[in-house]
Write a structure and sequence with these properties.
single chain; alpha+beta; Phosphorylase Kinase, domain 1; Transferase(Phosphotransferase), domain 1; hypothetical protein tt1634; 5 domains; six-stranded mixed sheet; 18 helices; globular; nucleotide-binding
Length: 700
């Protein structure tokens, strides 16, 4: 965050809408500011984009804010989530969105360039976000390096944001607002100069920002309107960029929209086919090193730096007759890290005080202090220094990780408690021990647990699983979720009430981390089948479901289909081993279930007899495009979306033998299938090797 100014729209500590407490300023621009805030009800950290009062009354700017708020319906980890658009009592319009803790891609640009392999990863992730965005008929129009945040510094966790109001003066980029257009000259597509923007305009911006980030240079768009328009008609200079990044940039940023990839989904397919640059060509131009990424400081130790001034250097004093030297300030430090390491140092007035401190430290940490850890010194600020410090150590002992710093009468404690109850107990005990000794307490304690794993998260939410398994997204870059990280739980539930309870349970289990409970609410009939899956979901990683459209070579990464669409459904699994059997069904919004595989016209279930193998992947098509189905109508099933809207669930079972002993009708009720499946699972007639599910969301 940056320093507050007298003219800021909001002030630190101000509460908006009885909910959002302002914590500080993240950025400023000519039209408004962006703030970090905390939801006082849920504790969730959010970002607020606020317009200055003059612009809050301008219809053009309000339209831009409304355009962003419409993105709240987009469900993609690669796109920032919007929660609300509101107006303060003073008339300032503001947006509420996720606070993404990470590194702006512009940091790589400003550091002098980036690794082309990492940029390919960023391109893929941003393309995933654009697929979800464009599926909602929303064109971003302002893609640039400062509008992409790498969550935790990880290029594979890039998130598209839109901080255009706060960033419009950064790195020389000029934000254009008006006539339905918003973008930056340096990255905007040629057609945007005429006020026209389409999904392929975002693809151009992606190519331009990849090139700028690789080179470490903001593009020179020209110094006058005429020069800008002329420069946009020329291809970008990609000299020195290694393949395949070079070819990708050239195709994305072709001045002619018709020659760009037709969609973000097509870009995804192209990136998957291209792979990454070879090691010998994987360095930025002119020998510029890629910036270091993925580093994360531990919160408790960072907080200690903020809380306590650096201690004066300590010279060790060997005991000798006479009065010990005076220490100014009189200091003491003790800590225990999360991995069990412990350290002790500081001033004590005599051997008795040193013994009391050493015994408390050993009891709290299980470690024996070094013989010269403590220094005899006079000048202690309270009479019974040894007992006072020992009491502070004892108060800190229940924390999973802690650091105690005492300087004269100031006693500072930072650490991580195992849970909220433990945090409250330590805070009270520490305050009592400090004030009782005449010291001033300063405690900053986070709520843990310190080591939080996906298994712990799933155990906490499992009692609420009423519609299939609830799965915790894996941590980024390790086996545990760091303090402050986002913890997401996905799956499906049977009601909005369960979704609310899930959010509360998740928030209560993860401590000072960001909770994101995003289950899909399915109707009770579908949950009748999905609710049987948790016990058999361990092998889901071996199967996936691919979706597409009949009549066009395009993947459907969102699962959303409109009236008249012709869904294509593929089951994807490793080519080897080719053992086991498949059973594939769709439980739809009407309460009916369709057995896609096997059927009377397609009775085979053995994996080895199904589908085609290419590139180590076996593809088994269970729903075809209409043209394919007409070529073999007896065995190929095809359907179109009608006006029955809602969510349906594709379920794929891989078993050691056919799931059922006999073929089932193509159409039956979900209830009848669920009853028979329950009997199969209870009797143990088959072994479930893996399960995969995929939502189909049909909309008008």
């Amino acid at each position: 965050m940056i320093e507050p100014l007298p003219g800021d729209i909001f002030r630190k500590g101000q509460v908006l809408n009885n909910t959002y407490e302002i914590e500080g300023v993240l950025g400023r621009g000519g039209t408004g500011e962006v703030y970090r805030a905390r939801n006082q009800i849920t504790g969730r950290v959010v970002a607020l984009k606020a317009l200055n009062r003059a612009f809050s009354a301008n219809d053009a700017y309000i339209e831009l804010m409304k355009r962003e708020e419409e993105m709240r319906a987009i469900a993609s980890d690669a796109v920032v989530r919007y929660t609300d658009c509101s107006r303060s009592a003073e008339g300032h319009v503001y947006l509420v969105m996720d606070y993404v803790d990470g590194t702006p891609l512009s940091d790589w640009l400003e550091a002098g360039g980036a690794d082309p392999g990492d940029l390919m990863t960023v391109a893929r992730r941003v393309s995933e976000g654009l697929v979800a965005t464009h599926a909602r008929n929303i064109v971003h129009r302002d893609l640039s390096p400062d509008n992409i945040i790498l969550r935790g510094g990880d290029p594979g966790q890039a998130v598209i944001i839109d901080f255009g109001i706060a960033k419009d003066a950064n790195a020389g980029a000029r934000t254009i607002v008006g006539d339905g257009f918003a973008g930056k000259y340096e990255y905007a597509a040629p057609e945007q100069m005429n006020g026209h923007a389409e999904p392929r305009s975002d693809l151009y911006a992606l190519g331009a920002l990849l090139l700028a980030t690789f080179r470490g240079q903001v593009p020179d768009a020209g110094g006058s309107p005429g020069a800008i328009v002329a420069s946009k008609q020329r291809p970008l200079d990609t000299g020195g960029v290694p393949e395949p990044l070079r070819g990708l940039i050239e195709r994305l940023a072709d001045p002619d929209p018709a020659r760009r990839p037709p969609s973000a989904a097509a870009v995804l397919s192209e990136i998957d086919a291209l792979g990454k640059p070879s090691p010998e060509r994987g360095k930025p131009e002119r020998g510029k090193p890629a910036p270091e990424k993925g580093r994360r400081s531990r919160w408790p130790l960072a907080a200690a730096v903020l809380l306590v001034a650096a201690l004066a250097g300590l010279g060790w004093w060997l005991a000798r007759p006479g009065v010990p030297p005076v220490a100014r300030p009189y200091v003491f430090t003790a800590e225990r890290t999360g991995d069990g390491a412990a350290r002790l140092s500081g001033d004590v007035p005599d051997a008795a005080a040193g013994k009391a401190v050493a015994e408390a430290f050993a009891a709290a940490t299980g470690a024996t202090p070094e013989p010269d850890a403590l220094t005899l010194a006079s000048g202690q600020p309270v009479a019974d220094w040894g007992a006072a410090v020992a009491a502070l150590i004892t108060a800190a002992a229940p924390l999973e990780e802690w650091r105690l710093d005492v300087s004269d009468r100031d006693a500072g404690l930072v650490g991580v408690a195992p849970d909220a109850t433990g945090r409250a107990a330590v805070e009270a005990g520490f305050a009592s021990a400090a004030t009782g000794a005449g010291l001033v307490p300063h405690a900053r304690i986070a709520t843990g647990p310190l080591r939080l794993t996906p298994a712990m998260v799933e155990a906490a939410v499992k009692p609420l699983a009423d519609c299939g398994p609830l799965i915790a997204a894996p941590p980024s870059g390790g086996d545990v979720y760091p303090m402050g990280a986002e913890v997401a739980v996905r799956g499906s539930v049977a009601s909005d009430e369960t979704r609310r309870k899930l959010g509360a349970a998740l928030a209560g289990a993860i401590g000072d981390r960001v909770a994101r409970a995003e289950p899909v609410v399915l109707n009770p009939a579908i949950c009748g089948v999905a609710g049987l899956l948790p016990a058999v979901s361990a092998g889901t990683g071996s199967i996936s479901v691919g979706l597409g459209f009949g009549g066009r070579d395009e993947k459907n990464l969102t699962g959303i289909y409109a009236t008249g669409d012709n869904p294509v459904i593929d089951v994807l699994l490793p080519a080897e081993p080719g053992d086991g059997h498949l059973w594939v069904v769709i439980a739809d919004v009407t309460g009916n279930l369709y057995n896609l595989l096997p059927r009377l016209s397609q009775p085979a279930t053995a994996v080895a007899d199904l589908g085609t193998v290419a590139g180590g992947v076996r593809r088994v098509r269970v729903a075809y495009g209409e043209a394919e189905a007409r070529a073999d109508p007896a065995s190929r099933l095809s359907f179109r979306v009608d006006d029955t809207f809602g969510k349906s669930l594709v379920i794929v079972f891989r078993t050691d033998r056919p799931l059922f002993d006999t073929l089932r009708p193509t159409t039956e009720t979900i209830a009848s299938f669920a009853a028979d499946l329950d009997a199969v699972l209870r009797e143990g007639r088959v072994t479930i090797l893996a399960v995969a599910t995929q939502l189909l969301d049909t909309r008008e």
